[in-house]
Amino acid sequence: MGAPKQKWTPEEEAALKAGVLKHGTGKWRTILSDPQFSSVLKSRSNVDLKDKWRNISVTALWGSRKKAKLALRRNLPAPKQDDNNNTTPLSIVSLANGQERTNPTSPGGFGAGSPQTHASKKSITRIILEAITNLKETRGSDRTSIFLYIEENFKTPPNMKRNVAVRLKHLSSNGPLVKIKHRYRFSTNFTSVG
Amino acid sequence: MGAPKQKWTPEEEAALKAGVLKHGTGKWRTILSDPQFSSVLKSRSNVDLKDKWRNISVTALWGSRKKAKLALRRNLPAPKQDDNNNTTPLSIVSLANGQERTNPTSPGGFGAGSPQTHASKKSITRIILEAITNLKETRGSDRTSIFLYIEENFKTPPNMKRNVAVRLKHLSSNGPLVKIKHRYRFSTNFTSVG
DNA sequence: CGGTAGGGATAGGGTTCT
DNA sequence: TAGAACCCTATCCCTACC
Fold first, then answer.
1. What sequence ranges are listed for the domain HTH myb-type (chains A, B) (predicted)?
2. Which of A103, A119, A128, B57 is deepest in the core (most CB within 10 A)?
3. What is the mean pLDDT of residues A32-46?
4. Using one digit for the tens of pLDDT, what is the confidence trace for A62-112?
């Protein structure tokens, strides 16, 4: 007979998320070995963690599309082709709002309503973090949502998308953001985890 | 609207049963890929096989999926008349038989192809153990599989199922079989580990 | 051998059709 | 209405590749 399915409990899922925030994605064995999580996740394997994280990410993809649609009151076509030539689907998780590197204005986040100022007046990094923060999507916002947020809240130059995309890539490779690979490639996600 | 319902033909159902006997339950893709069955089951998917097998099994045990589910929820198993009481989904693992695989010549094993002898001529216990052994399911065979095996390989009296069910209960309570609980399962499983 | 990424299969809940 | 057929997808499995 096939394997009975062992459904994930909320506690396990929370432990997994905390583990990813602490150790990063792809560090499944490390998370499992961390005494902070090992008791909760004792019945899970590293592969289980990987699979569950993938599932969470996929769920986030659709949730974030829906949320972006409602929040920004805009019809979003499914992002079939990437806005840049990124090939790998991913999410980006903000590691911390208060880290020095990001140099945010206020440690606790951003104000809800940013004035419609020129994007060039703020650092692109700050704007991106504001978007991720204010979209309030615990499981990630895709690029389109972020672009739309910025378009809705700032006066943007025509090459805004490209600049933001480049900045996102930089922030996720050596900045305060963490890449999370997704199984499906029809969109790229950027998630802010509180 | 959707795909028209494609009713299972007796030939397809026979092929599915034969496939389960040959490869075990949960091996839907394997059955589908077996040239012995692939032509008959050409228009079926592995999921179709799984669903059909579920219908067959659950009908045999409870009459319908709905009844099975209700029985599980109320923790009051209400199997059909010829079944004895089930409490929880379980597997039964044979503790007997030191040998690994089916070996027609070894004393404790059973031949792969038993002659179509009258079930009453062999002890029910031996027949059950033969079924469990030859079904080769590491995670257990359910009653339906065992019944089917016996029906396919022996001439059975009309009350075979009842006799086998009673015997299974006895063997699992104080015989060479061990019960193993499953987490989510309608049916009762009987597994032979080699 | 141990670990991860990714494709793919299965199990079980749910839905549609007859 | 019940039951058979079908859908959805979380979970699990298998393999390639370090």
1. 1-61
2. A128
3. 96
4. 544 344 333 333 333 333 333 333 333 344 444 333 333 333 333 333 333
Residues 6+ apart with CB under 8 A from B111: B102, B104
B184 contacts on A by Cβ (under 8 Å): 4-5
Relative to beta strand A189-192, strand B141-142 is unpaired
In single-letter form, the type of residue at position B156 comes to: T
The bridge status of strand A189-192 relative to strand A141-142 is antiparallel
pTM exceeds cut of 0.85? no
Type and span of the H or E element at B141: strand B141-142
Location of structure tokens 């090992």:
A38
Task: Using DSSP bridges, classify how beta strands B90-94 and B177-181 pair: parallel, antiparallel or unpaired.
Answer: antiparallel
Q: Is the CB of A51 under 7 A from strand D?
A: yes
How much is the average pLDDT of A137-166? 65
- Choose among B116, B53, B60: nearest CA to B83: B60
Q: What is the DSSP letter of B99?
A: -
Q: Is B29 on the interface with A (CB under 8 A)?
A: no
Cβ–Cβ contact B182 with A under 8 A: yes
Q: Show the 3-state SS of chain A.
A: CCCCCCCCCHHHHHHHHHHHHHHCCCCHHHHHHCHHHHCCCCCCCHHHHHHHHHHHHHHHHHHHHHHHHHHHCCCCCCCCCCCCCCCCCEEEEECCCCCHHHCCCCCCCCCCCCCCCEHHHCCHHHHHHHHHHHHCCCCCEEHHHHHHHHHHHCECCCCHHHHHHHHHHHHHHHCCEEEEECCCCCCCEEEECC
The contacts of residue B182 (CB under 8 Å, 6+ apart) are A4, B88, B89, B90, B91, B189
Q: At a CB cut-off of 8 Å and minimum separation 6, what does B134 contact?
A: B102, B110, B112, B149
What is the distance between the alpha carbons of residues A16 and A10, in angstroms, rounded to a whole number? 10
* Residue with token string 């995670």: B139
Strand, coil or helix: B1: coil
Shortest-distance nucleotide from A50 CA to C1': C4
Alpha carbon A135 to its chain's center = 11
Q: What tens digit of pLDDT does each residue of A47-60 get?
A: 999 999 888 876 66
Q: How many CB atoms lie within 10 A of CB A47?
A: 10
> Which nucleotides in chain D lie closer than 7 A to a protein CB?
2-14
- Does B136 touch chain A if contact means CB atoms closer than 8 Å? no
